[in-house]
Structures are given as C-alpha cells and as structure tokens.
C-alpha cells in the first residue's frame, strides 16, 4: 500500500508499538502501511563514510510510458495525450522520448 501526501492537506497515521518486543505498525484508515521492529542501540551508529554503498538494480526502476505518466499523475501532474512524449526510462537517468533520446539533460534528435 502507498500513502500519497499532498502539499496541502493532512494524513493521519496511527502508530502502534508492542511493549516488550518493539514490534511496530503504522497504518492509515485501518490499512497497514509499514511494519517493523525498534530497539535500543547498543553500539554507536556508523558514519555515512562507513556505510556500504547501496546497490541499485536499474532494471527494477525501468518504466514504460504508461507507468511514467501514472507516477506523474499520482504526484499531481496531469498530461493529456498530446503532451505525452516520454516513451520509457531505464532507471539510470536516460529517458526514451518519441523521436529522440535524452540523457541527463542532453537531447539527441533522430
């Protein structure tokens, strides 16, 4: 489940923590959004320099045209058929446009 928070308005989230084992649950409108476990740290937290770099699976981030515009619509942007030029994205910052390729601000027209 996803919770979409708009700039204006509010969202009520209920947080429940089970004493003793630290299990928690966050829900919205009686639907669970996230669950987990909290605990007291026994050792200091590593600095950002000591943390391993996350591995990003760019294929998991690939979106087709419908998916791109669905994400934009969920963020409040509405694009009609005339203004839908994005064909796909591969998750690395490269967008395939109908008629050209754009990578990190550089466009190449075919």
Which short descriptors sum up this protein?
110 residues; mainly beta; 2 domains; five-stranded antiparallel sheet; three-stranded antiparallel sheet; 1 helix; 8 strands
Radius of gyration: 20 Å
Largest β-sheet summary? 5 strands, antiparallel
SS-based class:
mainly beta
Helix and strand element order: EEEEHEEEE
Task: Count the DSSP helices.
Answer: 1
The poorly predicted ranges are none
Report the portion of residues in β strands. Answer: 25-35%
Total domains = 2
Task: Tell me, rounded to a whole number, the average pLDDT.
Answer: 77
Determine the fraction of residues in helical runs and give it as a percent range: under 10%
Strand order of the largest sheet: 4-5-6-7-8
User: What's the number of extended β-strand segments?
Assistant: 8
What distance lies between the first and last C-alpha atoms, to the nearest angstrom? 40 Å
The global form is flat
């Amino acid at each position: 489940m996803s919770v979409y928070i708009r700039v204006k308005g509010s969202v009520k989230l209920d947080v429940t923590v089970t004493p003793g084992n630290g299990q928690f649950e966050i829900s919205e409108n009686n639907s669970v959004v996230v669950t987990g476990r909290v605990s007291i740290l026994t050792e200091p937290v590593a600095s950002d320099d000591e943390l391993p770099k996350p591995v990003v699976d760019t294929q998991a981030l690939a979106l087709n045209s419908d998916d791109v515009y669905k994400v934009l619509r969920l963020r409040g942007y509405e694009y009609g058929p005339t203004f839908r030029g994005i064909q796909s994205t591969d998750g690395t910052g490269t967008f395939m446009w109908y008629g050209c390729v754009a990578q990190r601000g550089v466009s190449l027209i075919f």
